[in-house]
Specification:
The complex is a heterodimer of chains A (about 130) and B (about 1000). Chain A is built from 3 helices and 6 strands. Chain A is of the alpha+beta class and about 130 residues long. In chain A, strand 1 and strand 2 form a beta hairpin. Chain B is an alpha+beta fold and about 1000 residues long. Chain B is built from 23 helices and 50 strands. In chain B, the strands form 13 sheets. In chain B, strands 9, 10, 11, 12, 13, 14 and 28 form a 7-stranded mixed beta sheet that branches. The longest helix of chain B is centred in the middle third of the chain and has 18 residues. Classes of the chains: A alpha+beta (about 130), B alpha+beta (about 1000). Chains A and B meet through helix 1 and helix 3 of A and helix 19 of B.
Chain lengths: ~130, ~1000
């Protein structure tokens, strides 16, 4: 399996570590009762098909990112930082919208990253 | 009497280049171009091994990887390789081949008596005999059975061969170099894109090599020559495609020539893949069909045309399809008297005419009733109306052809049954995969070439290549004749009608499995062992599935196949390990002080990836005693120890204090500048993740240390929180683990030592109290002194950039030499902390709560920290959890041992006990063995007597539960 790191590009899976299920909403720090935390930590779906996961490019740029992966086929959809122009306008793809609905903080981070990483240079580059 | 002879017809062997080899100690001669199997046949060797269970005599059946029986042990010592497949092993000078599973000799095998026991060795033998009432006797019988049944034996010697790995990529990968593969590779190569052609054989050509047709031979040579002319075309013979994985990763194992490696495992990323793996012939199932001399018809043809090895005089052919007639005709042309037993009742006119012309007798509606001859076939008796007995040297059988669909199915696509050719064909192809030729069930040469070309054009289109390409020239031959077959699935009568030649599974076993309810193909496989072993059922699976379908009254399409998994052919573990063996098994992490330790008599021990100084020569040469001297040095004077492997993280940013306050259970928000604090982190689930000391350098900068073991995990976890969740916190983390080295200077004289090393510096308790931190510059090098103690003595940690660590270490040793300072190793370091009752990696088993470790009071009551909610779940608050205790040995002259199981004094010594010892040491202070342990209920049982059981050494040692703080409970030494 190869994983497209939104910062470094496509790399072998050996460079990455899997984190956890990114469709789950982490309770805000200092909030949440026992039940909320119990469900967050211990109760998982095990979907066959499209899934969103946290991965870290641990032997590379060390950035965490969300990855949309088909658990049955290992097919990977471009993550929001990649692709034409690298922009993350909400209307540009279902991925972004879906991510926004499942994990607002990750989208927030990517919006921040957009300005930080100056993705403008990549605009217009065609993905191979 | 020999059953085979060399012909003088053109073949793919070089008769001018003889090659010497040995078989069971006897020297034989073959030719360059031979395989081990063809050379053995040419030397008249037909009895080549004994079978798996019944020790029946066996010979060569096939001419490829599907061979179930002609397996040998080759090589000597560490280079010994069991189960070498005779028909795929290129004959090279000096091969030493030995037959397998026979004793004392191949011809007279004592275990052949197993044949008489065959009724008890039938399907499900192991389960029935040893899982039932006789279960206990399994232990007794197992070695005997293992000795009696089996293939080659692995040797205990270390494999001294070198294995390498490489990673490659290409635009078009063509697997198989038969007519389809060659046509595909040549077409693709004309585009100028990167093309790789792989072939498992040492010769390119696949089925073309077996044809004996001059026109096809010319065509083959032309294609190979053209491939060589294309700069971007890479041709890999002796290379087996073992599996196709996600993202078009194809694993190839290559046997390189003129290379120090015995084998190279190649991971090839291919944009497109053309699978041209051909087809394998199916045997027919009849009584005694395993006798040496009974072979696949296509194999007989291959030995004849490729290796110039023909049956001596007479051959019988039994078939249910047209393909075997090529063998029949070519044998007749090579002066072999041929008789055909034809299962079908009608045959097309052209075959009949040619047979008549060559003097071949054909018996329609005929099969084989029995085979006569034990160690070599001498005659066959036909079944049916013509129950005649025919003398012969060889019986060539053909039950049809199975496309080699394995690679098409590795991604999960199930093969589908094709009635027309009575075989399973690919159930589809993954995107960017294409099939051509035999794998598709296309059995004609001309059609295969056309399919190869079509597949290549499709692959090029996928690779965005759109220019026009010239078509591959077809050989000047007539078109393929249509392939017809009448499947032969019914289960034959008889006791010795073998379905799986390698695992000795007969038609009777399949009937029995059916009667006993093992109906699904997966159950059938596991119950009878059919399709296991080195050949993975390449010749047996489909016949067995068909018989089961027949018994169940199901159509073949409903029976399905077992799952195809990589590797396609046997693959030695060495190839998978590659160069990651011995010292290269995992990377080694070395402290910046490593060379110093080496030069000064340190013995090393692995701690995770780290190589750490264990103890030093000055203290002795035994790990059992040296550490005691080193401990005494620290308790009484001063020692210095390398702690560079500690995880070190620089935490900076306006929100750094808030961040640390969230991740540690205890408060860090108000930690004063210039002070350190011991902190514990929990996971979200409330279980202890790690501990360490973090000090405040400035308002916005902290210096965190973690345990050696958890350093990577903690860094990754903190990055995760900051990057994915707490994006509002302005904090940046930098790992300093490798950038900074560290040393602990410990013992009552440690302050004196520092004063001697840094006379300008004020390290008195007033300026540098316990848990104080001080940054200063010494000879232009940044140095950080932290007054921390792992040993419980007055102690300091001195950290500095890794490049200067050795210089600083030597400086301290030299300056404080007058005190008698010496280095101490990991064993003493760990023992000192056990005496002090500090927990470390061994005591933290990733199941401990704060309370289990007696640290519950550390946690902030008012503040929020990770793991707070789940820390208070019911299970974590249960009264009888395994919790930290100290143990004192109560028996003189006895040892406590790490891992010992703990029982209360009144308990029966049985089962898992109430806890176990996690760390143990000899205490120089108390003059006895002491230990840290986890125990049900923990210190509630303080003062109670227990038994430390170590069943491996038959030891039961009396001990007592005490506080884990064995020394200096008041902390007077610490604060001195």
């Amino acid at each position: 399996m190869r994983i497209p790191c939104p910062h470094c590009g496509e790399r072998d899976v050996a460079e990455f570590r899997y984190g956890s299920d990114a469709t789950k909403q982490r309770p805000q720090h200092g909030t949440g009762d026992l039940k909320t935390w119990h469900d967050y930590v211990f109760v998982f779906d095990n979907p066959k098909g499209q899934h969103i996961e946290y991965w870290q490019h641990v032997l590379g740029c060390r950035q965490w990112f969300t990855l949309k992966r088909n658990t049955a086929t290992n097919q990977i959809l471009p993550s929001p930082l990649e692709g034409e122009g690298g922009a993350l306008a909400p209307d540009e793809g279902a991925v972004a919208t879906e991510l926004a609905s499942t994990n607002p903080s990750s989208v927030l981070r990517m919006k921040d990253a957009q300005s930080t990483f100056s993705l403008k240079g990549r605009r217009g580059e065609k993905k191979q | 009497m020999t059953a085979f002879r060399r012909t003088d017809k053109p073949a793919h062997i070089d008769r001018t280049k003889p090659i010497t080899f040995t078989f069971d100690g006897k020297t034989l001669i073959g030719f360059s171009g031979d395989t081990l199997a063809s050379a053995l046949l040419a030397n008249g060797k037909t009895l080549l091994g004994r079978s798996f269970k019944y020790h029946r005599p066996r010979g060569v059946i096939a001419a490829g990887f599907e061979e179930p029986n002609a397996l040998f042990t080759t090589g000597v010592g560490g280079r010994t390789e069991p189960n070498t497949i005779g028909p795929t092993t290129e004959l090279v000078s000096g091969i030493t081949a030995k037959s397998q599973n026979a004793w004392p000799s191949l011809s007279f095998d004592v275990m052949a008596a197993n044949q008489l026991l065959s009724p008890i060795f039938s399907a499900g033998f192991y389960y029935k005999t040893f899982m039932g009432p006789l279960k206990k006797s399994w232990m007794m019988y197992e070695p005997i059975i293992r000795k009696a049944a089996g293939l080659g034996v692995a040797v205990p010697d270390v494999d001294t061969a070198r294995y390498e790995q490489r990673h490659t990529f290409c635009d078009v990968l063509v697997i198989g170099s038969g007519p389809a593969g060659l046509a595909a590779a040549v077409t693709a190569a004309r585009s100028g894109l990167r093309v790789t052609l792989t072939e498992q054989d040492f010769e390119l050509g696949g089925s073309l090599l077996s044809s004996g047709n001059e026109v096809l031979e010319q065509w083959r040579k032309t294609q190979i020559a053209e491939l060589e002319s294309h700069r971007e075309a890479r041709v890999l013979n002796r290379t087996t495609a073992q599996g196709i994985y996600d993202g078009n990763l194809v694993v190839l194992n290559c046997i390189p020539q003129n290379h120090p490696a015995k084998m190279i495992l190649e991971q090839c990323r291919a944009k497109t893949i053309i699978i041209a793996t051909g087809a394998i012939e199916r045997p027919l199932v009849f009584e005694n069909n395993d006798r040496p001399g009974v072979m696949l018809a296509s194999a007989v043809r291959t030995y004849l045309n490729r290796y110039g090895v023909a049956p001596k005089k007479r051959a019988v052919i039994v078939t249910n399809n047209d393909s075997a007639y090529a063998t029949a005709f070519e044998l007749a042309e090579a002066d072999v008297a041929v008789t055909v037993a034809e299962h079908r009742s009608t045959l097309s006119g052209d075959l009949l005419a040619k047979a008549a012309q060559l003097g071949i007798a054909i018996f329609p509606n005929s099969g084989i009733a029995n085979v006569i001859g034990e160690k070599q076939i001498s005659a066959v008796r036909l079944a049916g109306r013509h129950a005649v007995t025919i003398e012969c040297d060889v019986l060539a059988m053909s039950g049809g052809w199975n496309p080699v669909v394995h690679l098409t199915s590795h991604g999960g696509i199930k093969p589908k049954y094709d009635e027309k050719i009575a075989a399973f064909v690919p159930g589809g192809f993954a995107p960017s995969h294409y099939g051509a030729g035999g794998v598709n069930g296309t059995f004609g040469v001309m059609a295969a070439i056309r399919e190869g070309e079509t597949a290549a054009r499709a692959a090029l289109e996928t690779s965005n290549f759109s220019k026009k390409l010239e078509a591959v020239e077809l050989p000047a031959m007539r078109e393929d004749r249509a392939y017809t077959i009448q499947p032969q699935w019914t289960v034959p009568e008889g006791k010795h009608a073998f379905v799986d030649f390698q695992n000795d599974v007969t038609s009777k076993d399949i009937k029995q499995a059916h009667q006993e309810g093992y109906l699904s193909v997966e159950h059938l496989k596991r119950y009878t062992t059919l399709g296991m072993g080195t050949d993975q059922g390449k010749t047996s699976n489909i016949n067995a599935l068909a018989m089961m379908a027949d018994l169940r009254g199901l159509p073949m399409s409903a029976a399905g196949t077992t799952t195809f998994r990589p590797p396609y052919a046997p693959l030695t573990i060495g190839a998978i390990a590659g160069r990651n063996v011995g010292a290269h098994f995992k990377p080694k992490r070395l402290s910046p002080l490593h060379d110093w330790h080496v030069a000064h008599g340190a013995t090393f021990i692995e701690a995770g990836l780290w190589m750490r100084a264990w103890y030093y020569d000055w203290a002795g040469h035994s790990p059992e005693t040296a550490y005691i001297k080193e401990m005494e040095l620290v308790r009484q004077n001063v020692g210095i120890s390398d702690v560079s492997s500690l995880g070190k993280i620089d935490v900076q940013g306006p929100d750094a204090a808030e961040f640390l306050n969230r991740i540690y259970v205890n408060g860090f928000a108000k930690l004063p500048i210039g002070r350190a604090r011991y902190g514990v982190m929990l996971n979200d689930d409330g279980i202890v993740l790690d501990d360490g000391t973090t000090s405040r350098i400035s308002d916005t900068q902290f210096y965190m240390t973690t345990t050696t073991a958890q350093a990577g995990e903690v860094m990754s976890w903190l990055e995760y929180l900051l990057q994915m969740h707490w994006t509002d916190l302005n904090v940046h983390l930098t790992s300093l683990t490798d950038e900074w080295g560290g040393m602990a200077v410990s013992g009552p004289n440690s302050r004196r030592a520092l004063q001697l090393a840094f006379p300008e510096l004020d390290v008195t308790t007033e300026t540098l109290p316990y848990i104080g931190v001080m940054d200063f510059v010494f000879e232009d090098v940044s140095v950080r002194i932290l007054r921390l103690s792992f040993s419980g003595e007055l102690a300091y940690e001195v950290h500095c950039p890794a490049n200067y660590t050795t210089a600083l270490w030597e400086h301290i040793l030299k300056s404080a030499d007058s005190l008698g300072i010496k280095p101490y190793g990991l064993e003493a370091l760990a023992s000192l902390r056990i005496e002090k009752g500090h927990v470390a990696g061994a005591d933290l088993d990733h199941r401990n709560t704060l309370d289990d470790l007696g640290l519950g009071k550390m946690a902030g009551k008012e503040k929020d920290y990770i793991g707070k909610a789940l820390r208070f779940r019911e299970d974590c608050q249960a009264p009888e959890r395994w919790s930290l205790i100290g143990i004192e040995c109560m028996e003189d002259g006895k040892k406590l041992r790490g891992g010992a199981i703990l029982f209360a004094a009144s308990d029966e010594i049985k089962g898992h006990g109430r806890g176990y010892i996690t760390s143990v040491t000899w205490s120089t202070e108390l003059n006895k063995f002491i230990a840290l342990a986890l125990y049900n209920g923990g210190l509630k049982h303080e003062g109670e007597d227990i038994i430390c059981a170590f069943p491996l050494k038959n030891e039961n040692v009396k001990a007592r539960i005490v506080s884990p703080h064995f020394i200096d409970k008041q902390g007077e030494r610490l604060h001195a």
